[in-house]
Specification:
Layout lengths: L4 E5 L3 H12 L3 E6 L34 E2 L3 H9 L4 H4 E4 L2 E3 L5 E3 L7 H9 L5 H16 L10 H4 L5 H16 L8 H13 L6 E3 L3 E4 L2 E3 L11 E2 L5 E4 L3 H4 L1 H10 L3 E4 L7 E3 L2 E4 L2 E3 L1 E4 L3 H11 L5 H15 L3 E10 L9 E3 L10 E4 L9 E7 L5 H15 L1 H4 L5 E13 L11 E3 L2 E3 L12 H13 L12
């Protein structure tokens, strides 16, 4: 296979995944990142005065509270590749969507699918009719191989499920996984997430090059640094909660791995859109054989749109084809309210919250149980509405009411509220995604391009891997300057 000089624009999880796999394939890789930090939309925030706890001590905060699943095989393999031990940096918990009052679903730590069956039987707050309605739907989805029409929304998909189950399980699961309300969210993507997390069989014993050796339910690391990694039993449905900050979870180790393997990583360097000149792609005066554009979709739209009037005619046709669906994409925001109460400890590291227009948060994470300072909470609002100050006040009031049994009369104080206004794409039914290839030799990657999944770290990583694999695909295009 021919080795190329490759430029990866963007050092988020997708761009770093593409860079690592391109280096493994023998390509010469340069990574350009506009910001001064790694990780894109899953990163650690720089320290600020409003990130201080009431006693004046600093708290390391992320730009959002991300979780992984045991089904995120490519992400976990990639972490091991760059020297990060998931067993030491992620807290594994059986899947649970329990509320503060104890109602909701909690799976036992049993093999699949027995864990789901037992969890449904023991679910609190649902009567037998509620549980039977969910079992009927699961059986139907499984019979249909977890496939439905691309036009079907999650709300339409779940019409036969009782309202208590929809409110306590389907809606929070849909909003957390797809960051899109059930009335708009893609039923097919929702089914894919359910299949991969709850019903997919473990991978058969095989060697994954430079990533790890995996048998059903047991991960045995291999390769560089494997002797220091811990064999780890995981199921697709397991919740994996980071116990280190997001930059340390993967991006920093990936950048160090790339430097150790001959690649160059440049922070604070904003790249102009690549331009075709003299048989190569030019970026800021440097020539590259291939380019992987790994920024957020709205930034890719702006860059390719700016170049469109200057591009050769046949290249312009490719850009137009890619820009049409990309411009039609819509976005959802995510807010994370960090709050603190001295000595506060929740019964679980993660709890679901009962949400409404006046109580907008869906989940709360006890950061004190995840490697952070005791008493620090992260309250997550998917698709928030309203002004910043109003949102923060409503979330604090919601947490004060729903967590009163553990607050013991204390008042929560806001530490910092982070709002990512275009955090994810809106994973709606009937959505058309752009292709991975923008033009021959120019690929894009990001979670918005991996069609089976919503906006997740696993989708971002898989898209990056696919872009790296496509570096040798150049057929079907004749260059005309």
């Amino acid at each position: 296979m021919k080795r190329h000089r490759v430029c990866v624009v963007g050092a988020g999880w997708s761009g770093l995944a593409a860079a690592v796999h391109a280096v493994q394939a023998g390509h010469r890789v340069t990574v350009l990142e506009a910001s001064r930090s790694l990780g894109g939309r899953a990163r650690t925030l720089p320290a600020r005065a409003d990130g201080l706890l009431p006693d004046g001590s600093a708290a390391t905060l992320d730009n959002g509270q991300h979780i992984l699943l045991g089904a995120y095989r490519e992400t976990l393999d990639l972490m091991r590749t760059v020297g990060v031990d998931p067993a030491q940096t992620l807290l594994r918990l059986p899947l649970g969507l329990r509320f503060a009052d104890g109602d909701g679903l909690q799976l036992p730590d049993w093999p699949q699918p027995w864990n789901l069956m037992a969890g449904l039987l023991m679910a609190r707050g649902w009567n037998m009719g509620d549980k039977r309605s969910l079992v009927r739907a699961l059986r139907l989805w499984r019979k249909n191989r977890f496939e439905c029409s691309a036009q079907t929304s999650v709300a339409e998909l779940c019409q036969g499920i009782n309202s208590a189950v929809v409110e306590d399980l389907i809606t929070p699961l849909c909003i957390s996984a797809l960051n899109t309300p059930p009335q708009l969210a893609s039923g097919q993507v929702f089914l894919t997430v359910l299949h991969d997390s709850l019903f997919a069989k473990p991978r058969k014993k095989k060697q994954v090059a430079l990533a790890g050796l995996e048998t059903p339910g047991l991960v045995v690391p291999s390769g560089a640094g494997a002797a220091n990694m811990t064999p780890w039993r995981t199921k697709g449905s397991d919740l994996l909660l980071p116990t280190v900050d997001l930059s340390a979870l993967f991006p920093q180790a990936a950048a160090a791995w790339l430097s150790d393997h001959g690649a160059s990583v440049h922070l604070g360097r904003r790249a102009a859109c690549p331009q075709w000149r003299g048989g190569q792609w030019q970026i800021d005066g440097e020539a590259f054989d291939r380019v992987i554009w790994a920024t957020a979709p709205q930034h890719a739209v702006q860059a390719f749109g700016d170049y469109l009037p200057l591009a050769p005619k046949n290249l312009g046709l490719h850009l137009q084809r890619w820009l049409r669906p990309a411009k039609a994409m819509k976005y959802q925001s995510i807010a994370t309210v960090y709050a603190h109460a001295p000595g506060l400890a929740l019964p679980r590291p993660m709890l679901a919250l009962r949400s409404s227009p006046l109580a907008p948060a869906q989940f709360v994470f006890d950061r004190g149980q995840l490697g952070g300072p005791a008493g620090l909470l992260a309250l997550v609002v998917s698709a928030p509405q309203g002004e910043y100050e109003q949102l923060e006040a409503m979330v604090l009031a919601q947490a004060q009411e729903q967590l009163e049994d553990w607050l013991d009369g204390q008042a929560l104080s806001a530490i910092r509220t982070v709002v990512e206004k275009q955090a994810t794409f809106s994973c709606a039914a009937r959505m058309v995604r752009p292709p991975q290839q923008v033009a021959p030799g120019l690929m894009a990657c990001g979670d918005y391009l991996y069609k089976p999944y919503p906006a997740t770290l696993e989708g971002a990583v898989r898209s990056g891997i696919m872009a790296a694999l496509a570096l040798v695909e150049t057929e079907g295009f004749v260059w005309k300057d």
